Amino acid sequence: MDMDALWWSAESLNIPTVRVRRPATEDTEEAVEELVRIEDLCWVLSGSALCDAVTGVSWEEFLEQRDADPQAMLKWQRHTQFAGYFVGQLTMHCAMCTGRSSSCIAWLEKSFSFTLLTSLCYNPHRQYTQ
Q1: Dist CA 11 CA 127 (whole Å)
Q2: Is the dihedral of CA 33, 53, 126, 122 positive or negative?
Q3: How far apart are CA 7 and CA 45, in angstroms?
Q4: Three-state SS letters, the chain
Q5: Where is pLDDT greater, at 92 or 100?
Q6: Which has the minimum average pLDDT: 83-87, 110-114, 120-124?
Q7: Considering only CA atoms, which of 87, 94, 88, 67 is closest in space to residue 127?
Q8: Neighbour-count burial of 42, counting CB atoms closer than 10 A to its CB (0-12 exposed, 13-18 middle, 19+ buried)
Q9: What does the domain layout of the chain look like in residue ranges?
């Protein structure tokens, strides 16, 4: 695995994927996509709180395994960087809608389904903060 690559696949970062069937529409054919669950991507940003719930391994055990293998440490760093980028993108989109920009809101409505957004809000693995 080339960790110097510009693009890292979920497989190269040990992020599990889920196969989802996308039904055909007027514009597209039916397809099967491999997607990453939000908790599998972002748990690394709150590792001590979410490690056991998402991976089934205690945080201490995970740290021991990660620290013993330089390749695992590199994967962890890339995974954390990618998750931070994803959260940053969501934060930016949120800020763009704060000023009630109708063009930004319209784009987001087309890009993210109601089902996707509600599943993010009610995800049992998500860490709730106030």
Answers
A1: 24
A2: positive
A3: 20
A4: CCCCCCCCCCHHHCCCCEEEEECCCCCCCCEEEEECCHHHHHHHHHHHHHHHHHHCCCHHHHHHHHHHCHHHHHHHHHHHHHHHHHHHHHHHHHHHHHCCCHHHHHHHHHHCCHHHHHHHHCCCCCCCCC
A5: 92
A6: 120-124
A7: 87
A8: buried
A9: 11-121
